[in-house]
Each structure stands twice: as structure tokens, then as C-alpha cells.
Amino acid sequence: MTDDYRSEATLTGSEREQLEAFLHDNRQAIVGVLEGLTEEQARRRLVPSLTCPLSIVKHVVFVEKVWFHASLAGRTRGELGIPEAAEESWYLTPDDTVESVLASYRLAWAEADEIAAAYSLDDLALHNRRGPLTLRWIYAHLIEELARHAGHGDILREQIFHGDNFGS
């Protein structure tokens, strides 16, 4: 990861500062999923599902856009260029590279922060299956989802780098 954990600097911060710090830290962990991987390693599937390091990060681009760009800002998935079904967000195309997916993620994240800045934690958003729900809930949900996917990425990275070296 390229910067310090923000959550450590917000031990006595406001609720919003703490939520934003934990979200930031988990976003950095997602970026770390691809850190130091070759294109082949990033696409390597080690489980039966479509999950690989690159697809994890591509999926969280979708997640950021669904919750902030669509649910909070009211844009359509078509307008955002994201699939209607979450399952489709795991599919990789030949054009997806470590660099391009990370750039998409950083852009989605920056835009999500800009969108959220205009709202209070109690402001309501609409989701295609849930809602109304608060921005506070979106922050908590994103922290949970990104942490889970970063953990998946950690395990895949361990398999990629050390898979043949563990004892029996």
C-alpha cells in the first residue's frame, strides 16, 4: 500500500471522518491486491469461480459505481457503463489490464468521494433492490464488502506467490 492507514489518525474523529478513513484504508487494500502482479498472475484463477485478483478489482469498480454513482447520485447503470447484474461485473475482457482496471478503480473512487461529499450521513439513497437507505449505511456496507474482497485477494496472492511452498 502506498499510504498510511487513515483510520489510525481518526481514533477520536467524528463518525464521518472514521467511516471515510476505514473506507479509504479498505480501498488501499483493494489496490494492494494487484500490487506487484504480472498480467498473467493478475488473471490467474485459483478457485472455481471467476474470482482472480484482476476480477476482484474490476468488481469493486462496479460496487463503487452502484452505491455512489447510481444509488446516491441517481445515475443509471447504462449511463455508467456497468452491467445490470452484479455477477457480470466479474467478467474480464482482453482489454482489461492491471493498469486499466486500477485506473478505472481510482477514477470511480475519486468520483464516489466527490458525490458523497455533497451529502450528510443521514441523507437517503435509492438502490435497485433496497432503499431508501442512508449514506451511513452505504459507507458501512462498502467497508464490509471491500474488506471481504481484499481478504479474498490476500489469499489469492498467497497462493500465487507461495502456493507450491506450503508444507503438508
Automatic annotation (TrEMBL):
Family annotation (Pfam families): MST (PF04978)
Gene3D superfamilies (UniProt xref): dinb family like domain
Protein name: DinB family protein
Natural source organism: Nocardioides caricicola
